[in-house]
Amino acid sequence: MFGKIGATELILILGIALVVFGPGKLPEIGKAFGKAIGEFKNHANQISEDVKIDLEDKKDKE
């Protein structure tokens, strides 16, 4: 349904963010956003590992 963000869309988003938040706040917002994405990836990977282990345990019991 939705593809990856292209260069034009990314520039538009960054331009709007610059106008709304100003140049002083952008580094802080970028850092917070990066940390949030990193945490999300870590949790998603952990959930995937938990599900994989759970499925393997169920398969072994059969």
UniProtKB/TrEMBL annotation:
Cell compartments where the protein resides: Cell membrane
Domain of life: Bacteria
This protein's record includes keyword Thylakoid: no
Any coiled-coil regions, as ranges: none
Membrane topology: Single-pass membrane protein
InterPro entries reported for this sequence: TatA/B/E, TatA/E
Keywords: Cell membrane, Membrane, Protein transport, Translocation, Transmembrane, Transmembrane helix, Transport
Self-association and partners: Forms a complex with TatC.
Record function comment: Part of the twin-arginine translocation (Tat) system that transports large folded proteins containing a characteristic twin-arginine motif in their signal peptide across membranes. TatA could form the protein-conducting channel of the Tat system.
HAMAP family tied to this protein: TatA_E (MF_00236)
Family to which this protein belongs: Belongs to the TatA/E family.
Name the record gives this protein: Sec-independent protein translocase protein TatA
UniProt organism field: Tissierella carlieri
Lineage: Bacteria, Bacillati, Bacillota, Tissierellia, Tissierellales
